[in-house]
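Deliverable D5.2: sample structural annotation.
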Amino acid sequence: MHGGAAAVAGADPMAEPLIRLRGVTKTYGEGPTAFQALKGVDLDIAAGDFVAVMGPSGSGKSTTMNMLGCLDVPSGGEFLFRGVHVETLDRDQRALLRRRYLGFVFQGFNLLARTTALENVELPLLYRGDAKQARRDLAMAALDKVGLKDWWDHTPAELSGGQQQRVAIARAIVTHPDVLLADEPTGNLDSERSVEIMELLTDLNQNSGITVLMVTHEPDMAAFAHTIVHFKDGLVERIETQSQSPSRLREGGEK
């Protein structure tokens, strides 16, 4: 199915993978200074998967994540989301797709310093035009889901790094997205807080059905994913599938 943002809602998500890349290329610049960041990426991502994207600097992983987040478009090839050819959408149509289906989490949290946790989580709903009470109810529910319901009136300066990232995750899921894109979500955290954030992402994936796409440089964090996609030189080098993540092992009683 080709078409605009209206077509996104009408696509059959069961007909094919949630996300499909075929021969995707991305070139920056022109002429002798042109740089080809992606050289023909093929990748399928199923709904409900937890995917870690890894690779050295310049491998194409960040360019691919920008593409998957509808923040950029391919120079060539096909990018299908829920059966819709995203490469044919204009800027406004891609923005609608982002608002409806995607949530974003960043390494630096990106919280507003002088606003409370609740107000930070409400922001996407404010942009969406939700009424005040509806915003509050949805934001409180999201904070509860990440274990911070009792911290709703605290500003970022009054929260630990792990708590700030939980607020950022609550903000990302408050619109009930299909896909959560996380760019180095544990990069600014110590090992204990990192594991807590990964366990939260695993819970959202397993119990809320959110597809998680995460860029990480840390093998210990990638181990929480079901699928690990390794990039090298603008291509998918290999894909690993894991039957059990560390959190699943703990649930099964292993140490």
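Annotation notes: The chain is about 35% helix and 25% strand. The longest strand covers residues 35-45.
The annotation will be released with the project's public dataset once the embargo ends.
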